[in-house]
Amino acid sequence: MVDIDKIMTTDADGTKRQIMPQTHVSAILGLDKQISEQVGGNTFNLTLPAGDPGKDGADGKSAYQLAVQSGFQGSLSDWLNSLKGKPGEAGGADSSVKQISAGQYKNIGDVPNGTYYLAMGGNDLPSDMPVNSVGYGILVSQIASEYNGRQEYTDLDNKTTTRIKASGVWQPWRTAIAQRLDNARKINGTTFDNTQDVTVYRVNDSEVILNTSFEKFETDKAHYHPWELVEFLFKPKANAGNLAITYYKRNELVATQHIAYDSQTVQWHWRLPGDDIEAYIVKVVNTVKGQSETFYHAINVSWDQKDRPLMGFLSKFGDYNLENVNNIMTYLKRLHINYIQYYDWFDRHDVPIKTNDDGFVSQFWGDFVNRPTRFDLIHKYIELGNKYGILSMAYGLINGASHNNETDGLSKDMFMFDDNSQDLGHVTNTNLTPWAKYVLYQMNFMVDSWQDYFTKETAKIYRFLPFDGWHIDTLGDPGSKYDSTGKNITTDSWKLAYPFFINKAISNSNGKRAGLNAVAEYGQKEIASSNADYIYTEVWDNRKTYNDMMNMIIEMRNMSDKELIVAGYMHHHWSDNNANNTNLVFNDPAVILTDLVIMASGATHLEMGEHMLTTEYFPNNKLSMSDALKDYLVKIYDLQVAFKRLFKIKNKAKVDMVSSTHAIFNNFMQKGNLSIISKEDDWYRVDSIINMIGLNGDTWRDDDKDRNYPTFQDNVMVGYPNHGDYKHFYVVEPKNPVPTEVFPDSNGNFTIHHIEYFTLVYATKF
């Protein structure tokens, strides 16, 4: 019995009432029930003892009885038959599994297409299969062509390891790990975790889903100063594992770290050494449940970015989409881009920054072709550039004007004329209207009046937008033109003004940076003598072949101590002449080979921004990049940075590299051979081996967009007749940028086991 007085209360007015009992959470688990209520700030609790067990309930009806009750007519057998599904479709033809000896095949790529059981494991397995256990029976599936394919094996632990070939390049081996999937989605009827990224490979018209163990590995900047702290971010897919981190300066081990993690975000930092004009490669081995994957990241270090300028571009400033902005800048950061030119950002060529009558900058304007342009978006890009160690360069033409009148501060002596008439109606111009918003008139950049006017007008930009400098464009050699007095100015004269213009642009902007485009090399020698940060040239048909490109770069770099940026537009003529073609993807081997020739010759390639360049009008994004090309570019740019000390060497090697197994050309780019660019200084000798065997052409631009893959080479023996001059020898591959030491025989020869596109060999004299 319950004492009723214990569940009664008296309100403030004297009225008695019963407390309304509420079952406490603990009552669900215990034998007793607790009731409580808050009244007037007091809590009343009452424990009720459990009662006697109740009687068993009546038997429930069977599923068949409930079906009859609901209207089913028929016997129990009829009802059971009604539960059966429709007959399934016939299965596919049997895929027989043949048993073969693992020792028959040197590489997994040699296994014929099909599915095979390899009876033995261990040392008998193909050498390129990442198998560590001995004595395994391996089920191997091989589907491969020249350009695409898949290879996989399943061991006795039932772990399936797979790699795919995309655009002719084999991707890293990945092991699929089964996971419980609670928050799920479906792909082709199969359920997968909605919170996990999965890689989908299509094989035999079915979806094979592999969970990758890695999401991203990045640093906080593109460029660092000596002694600076590098912040790393690693996001593995697994929740727990171990990172083994090693830091190298070329072949020299600088530092090591080990991190055990139990989350999907791993952050750490490393204090850089104090060396200027240096670079490092960071190797991270991520181990999860005995399975390891390796990742690399180069670190570019110097007090000034101009020691190795890696230039990118931006050309679209109308859509303030912060996610898109961050994605673009993150990829440019990953490529170590440390200069960005802001193409056609301005309002008018002669008055770049638009302000109102009160002197306040406009927030919106149309660029040269009336594309919407936003002040805040430009400012945001510059802000991110500053954060990432990237210099932002305002793009502007050296001699462009929006009219041919003596107004807005322009005077007659500033104009360039087609003849000696001295008539403003005969000013040199380019009429692109109505596409462009005005006729582009050309100014005489040799005269002080225009130099003073325009460099000071450009300096006003920096009051509103914190650009780091001015990337000055030109239209190339103006040819024979006239000044306002009717005097003829020849081709040989125009370029003499370049260094004066550049230096004035710097001095009139309180020391802001500057660089100038020497179109088709016009005026390059003069620019080299200026205070420009870099030499920059837009390459045209005067340099058509890989060998032309190499020679041009070597010639230009010997003009001064400045570094060279090459603006070269892949598939340019194809892009102009195939407006209706649907094959709108860059040719991977064409881009890769040109980048390697430019890098090995000693320059860097302006090619990347919101997209890859294909024409001189930077917003043209007609062609897109494959994912495989994007990934391989990262490898090239990592090499460009990590070994910049070697690529900066100018002098040719004193003695040619030799080979007893392959036809090679030293310092000459020739299809059908291994072409080698050899350089040497007092400390190093470096040989960049570029594989041109099997190529269907030797033009770097690949205007037919049909460059084929080189024929990959195995067991390439090379050597140095003067090997006694060197102490140590190293080999570097794009996929493994940590140098591997090799040991020549008594004749100075050693073997490079595999060359795809490129292998770097260097020797030290210390």
Automatic annotation (TrEMBL):
Record has 4Fe-4S as a keyword = no
- Write the record's keywords in alphabetical order, separated by commas: Signal
The record's Pfam families line, in alphabetical order, gives: Glyco_hydro_66
- Decide whether keyword Ribosomal protein is in the record: no
Q: Which family does it belong to?
A: Belongs to the glycosyl hydrolase 66 family.
Protein name (record): Dextranase
Give the source species.
Answer: Leuconostoc citreum
Q: Write the lineage as a comma-separated list.
A: Bacteria, Bacillati, Bacillota, Bacilli, Lactobacillales
